[in-house]
Specification:
Elements: H1 5-11, H2 18-26, E1 33-37, H3 43-50, E2 54-58, H4 62-65
Parallel strand pairs: 1-2
């Protein structure tokens, strides 16, 4: 268990960050590859995948991906 456990539990079901959603709404280029460093519970990763991006998601805390 890490100091991040409570955070992952709190945000696990939240949608992608609003800053990402706004950026994607203004993106006029083609989809491509994205790197989600510190992806946590993968909420931004899932949004990128849903919009057709290829995503590599990594996090130092394995528990984040299982939250």
């Amino acid at each position: 268990m890490s100091k991040w456990t409570g955070y992952y539990d709190a945000v696990g079901d939240e949608p992608a960050r609003s800053t990402l959603l706004r950026a994607l709404d203004h993106w006029n280029g083609p989809t491509g590859a994205a790197l989600d460093l510190g992806c946590g519970t993968a909420r931004d990763t899932l949004e990128l995948l849903a919009r057709g991006w290829d995503v590599i998601a990594v996090d130092a805390q394995a528990e984040a991906l299982s939250a």
